[in-house]
Amino acid sequence: MAGGFLPYHEPGIVNILILISFFFFLSLAEWISSKIIRAGIIGQIAVGIIYGTPLANILHADWQSTFLALGYIGLILIIFEGGLGARLDLLKKNFFLSMIGAATGVLFPIGLSYLLLYLGFGYGAVETFIVGASLSATSLGTTFAVISTASSTVDLAQTRVGSILVSAAVIDDVVGLVMLSVINDLGELGQGHSVNLGWLIGRPIVASVGMAIVTPLVTKYLFAPLFRRYIEYHFARFDHISNIILMILVLCAFISIAAYTGTSILFGAFLAGTFLTYIPSKHPDGPFVVMSREEGEREENKSPTFVHTFERYLLDVQKYLMEPLFFSSIGFAIPFVQLWTGKRIWRGIVFTLLMLFAKLIVGIWVPLWQILSGSNILSRKVAKEYPREEHYSDDSTKAVWSTVCLSGLLLGSAMVARGEIGLLIVEVGYNETSYVSEDAFITAVWAILLNTVLGPVTVGLLVKFRGKEIEEGAWGLQGTAPAGDGDSSIDPSLGNLEGSFKTHDDMCQTTRHSPAYSLNHSGSIWTKPSSPDGQLPVPAQPAIYLPDYRLLVSSFYLSDQGQVNSTGRFVVDKVQSQQA
């Protein structure tokens, strides 16, 4: 009743000790699993299984419900942080490849589920669809948590393969929401209710596509100009306070719009992060262009970035409280005891392996894209034009394909975890419809649980032992695109660097007899042409603004007027621990 109050009682010592032990073991399990298998979230899920309803049921039911809600806020913050740190240029550049990867990650699990469950185990067609749909989703929370955990070794968010992973996982989440709507409607149809199936299936699709199209347009042509002209210079007076207020307002607005229009709240959280990433001015004199958080706090006319504000005020709460609660809440939802019968174990393991393959296959698009883009043609051309350097081309090709395959394996492995989305879909199918049997439900839970374990473990081991190779290649770290209309891009290959560039005449000054060329790309490449005796071009300054690389071969096409043609090619070879 409004106007009443909750009587204050001192909590009992048993409850206090239970809560202390729960949070202590969440931290301890995360640390142990991070050290052993490089996937701290696995320990948190295990603690949730032990303390929650599946095993010991130590936590009260209302506590578990509260932790689930707080954990979901943690999930929203994980996705929001991912949006804040997203490279918009890479997301845009690799969007088509991300769409292909996401489609592969949805269609293969459903198709292979029919192959095994429908034809092999004799499950029903609708039942198989529901189970396959639950395994077609990718856990956004796990994906972003893996990216965040790996950042101490490799900044995956700034890599090409990382941007593809983020886009594909977000698309999979939206598709998972559509699947969930379909399954909910199947339950209502089974109960004899009248349902507009077309609208309920189409609504989340229309809402998601609408938000994905409208958000960048409104941001670019309305909010960004208004913010840059009238607002951002006032932010410098208040440092983090103005930032945190705007961040909360934008996040709440986006997740509310997403919820009421029928798309995923998590998709809204990601768009909120990318919105805040785009609106500040990128001009060097802009208040949000700072080298460090300290500069933004210290300089009178500068402001900390939104990422800096998140790190100062929200990151610790998210990382040490809400994120552990989220992954432990996944453990609350796993029917652990029911898993352990002989038939369910072997069926679950077989289905797990099939579903592992169904997501790993997404990574095949990385080497396929490398082939289709024709990047190996350059190596053959350089070897032909510079026979004395043919061994460089051979070494480059081997290094390229080694790290391309590693990048593909990383992408596929990071898509493996199903987590909260998969559990939600299969539990709705089991509890709200009459189609899913207990055996099918347990088989799906086995696959979801083991894949949620195997995916992060594989990613952690890859990053630990081969992370630097991935980071330094074409699918690794990408230089920031220069401001302006010039299209100057470096597409580095793994191990060695190989690609093409495009320039405008105002970016270079050259004559036929005294040519020099400058490629501005987070630094510069200065080169001289080959001398008459066939020697390689000699870099006049550090060849490229990427550590541990030097220029080996540079081929420019000069017009009759002595101007650099609009397209040139280069190959640079890795040099350990030095710049040329």
Describe the structure.
It is a multi-pass membrane protein. This protein has 2 domains: 13-471, Na+/H+ antiporter like fold; 497-574, no CATH class. The protein contains 20 helices and 5 strands. The protein has helices spanning 13-37, 40-51, 61-84, 88-93, 95-118, 125-136, 140-150, 160-190, 197-235, 240-261, 265-278, 293-298, 306-313, 315-332, 342-360, 365-372, 375-385, 390-414, 419-432, 438-471; strands spanning 497-502, 517-520, 524-527, 549-555, 567-574. Strands 1-5-4 form a 3-stranded antiparallel sheet, covered by helices on one side. A two-stranded antiparallel sheet has the order 2-3. Strand 2 (517-520) and strand 3 (524-527) form a beta hairpin. Helix 16 (365-372) packs antiparallel against helix 18.
Q: What is the top-level CATH class of the largest domain? A: Mainly Alpha
Largest sheet: 3 strands, antiparallel
Secondary structure tally: strands = 5
Order of helices and strands: HHHHHHHHHHHHHHHHHHHHEEEEE
Pfam family, one: Na_H_Exchanger
Protein name: Sodium/hydrogen exchanger family-domain-containing protein
GO molecular function: antiporter activity
Subcellular location: Membrane
